[in-house]
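User: quick one, fold this
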Amino acid sequence: MNKRMILWGLAAALALAAGAFSQEAKKMTYPVTKTVDQVDDYFGTKVADPYRWLEDDRSAETEAWVKAQNAVTFGHLEQIPFREALKKRLMDIYNYPRYSAPFRVGGHYFFSKNDGLQNQSVIYIQKGLEGTPEVFIDPNALSADGTIKIYLLGPSGCKTKMAIMRGEAGSDWGEIRVMDIATKAELPDRIRWVKFSGTAWWKDGFFYSRYDQPPAGGELTAKNEFQKVFYHKLGDPQEKDILVYQDTKNPLLYFSVSVSEDEKYAFLTVSAGTSGTELYWKSLEAPGTEFSLLIPGFEADSYVLDNIGDKFLVQTNLHAPNARIVLVDPREPAENKWTTIIPEKLEVLSGAGMAGGKLFCSYLKDASTKVFQHEPDGALIREVALPGLGSAGGFGGWKDDRVVFYTFTSYNYPTTIFKFDIASGASEVFRKPEVKFNPEDFTVKQVFYASKDGTKVPMFIVHKKGLALDGGNPCFLTAYGGFNISLQPSFSPAHIALLENGVVFAEPNLRGGGEYGETWHKAGMLGNKQNVFDDFIAAAEYLIAEKYTSPERLGIEGGSNGGLLVGACMTQRPDLFRVALPAVGVMDMLRFHKFTVGWGWIVEYGSSDNEKDFAYLYKYSPLHNLKAGVRYPATLVTTADHDDRVVPAHSFKFIAALQKCQAGPEPVLIRIETRSGHGSSNLTKGIEITADTFSFFLFHTGAKVAS
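Assistant:
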């Protein structure tokens, strides 16, 4: 059969499938979801919650509902003619070696490598930069399904031991273990019920944070309260660990401890949620001393970078929304006694660190990275020459390092590792990936558009060169807009599968993020959250007005807080989008704080327990703003059974309500992954869910997909 006949046959098959799909959509029936007579009273407002029973995601009834929903969803996905071909293309794109930047521990270097399609990256160790790599630990060998992840937490001060975190099935819960660097053997130490904690080594043990063991059956949903700081001595059972710090009056606080490189000082960071910290310090050379307040909370975020003798180098955005670096004397910690090392600039200071006795500062200029090297007293040495506009990360190390490593990436620039000579400032490529695509085939641009209130918002747009701006292109619009998180240009192998099929990829930097400092963040949090949705809707309207796409070809995607973004925008402007892909989203804004660590988001969102907060939360909560008789976009909600950050109940309740309200023929479905969490627990699952969401998007926006 010649090529023309093959293409004709494919086109005919697609046309037939589209017709069948359209009819199937009109006839689609969803699993029956029972309702209960649950009504809550919020300050005189009665709010029904008929799907409250779905919050018990371990009940037999919920499990049966999940099975029935998945059956309908996968039945729909299996009818997309190019689904398997797209999955194979994704596997082909991902099948190249991917490395992390190496970091030095004594005379050894550690790094991770994925050969291409391994479920987990393997952690390697080698002597010096010229040594032969050896496997330090291979997570793929730890489970049959490849869903156990290993993270290196850090070496002991003597550089002979390495703490690791072992996580399973995507849950945030982890178990700290310790490995001997020389023998690569695990020691008997086991630290359980750890969540959101590192290790801070001191003498023959380390500090860490943990919660009490949750009640049986509530491991993935029960509210996590009263985190505590312990000290673990190597060789002791966990029961003998020493309680170092707790707050018995305030259950909703996070605690973390760090130790200075010289092991003279310990620093305690206390947070009431995802932003806002309080800093304490103590001398480790004076036994029996308690932590003393360094910077009161929780107005700003402050982090100790290093100690300069008996004073502390601190990055803070207190009274400096774009952040600055100051030197604080712990004996006189008042703000008016601080010495400014790096003053606040017009660009936001996104990160800082010490290596080789020098200070490295990373700034964001319109969401792209600029890096400067300074003396510890703030004197500028140089700007680090980067390959172009994009994202750079790294530059951390020890005081005696002579070189450091950093990564650079952009939308059409695969993540490349560079070696930086601290003395000369010279950069050289250390490892460059070989990806099966030609970056010259694609155009990357940044535009600025006006939001509803006139605020200028930046947006990156990526597409094939020579794209016709006729409104007929499918467009994949994704964003986040919250928690002071900045979306910077970065390379994603998965996005190649969209771009090569004529899709316009668009990523705006919405308010609520950290691209322009704390002022930008606060403009999109608490009672200002509607600004985030307005920014996203305005991005869609800009793309339509400039003829990149049309409402019939536009899909929106976002995960976690980005899932909330998609849920809010599809309920506010269902006419504007053809496809909606909310992933692991916060959909019930009235009850998010009642599960696991959801209370940590109150500083960002507010709480329905507060009358003022309830008013605006109820106004945009995706679950509570679905309306019967409305034609909503084709929707594929995604979640996972081990997501103990944004519990699946958010997605369960939202899709149940959406299926009841949907007036149009577009399918509204949910895909529930197993043995996975807030992110995919292994590469196989990641590719499968990407293939399904992309297939759903491409099919329902009428994309012409190569097969």
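User: anything notable?
Assistant: Confidence is low (pLDDT under 50) at residues 1-25.
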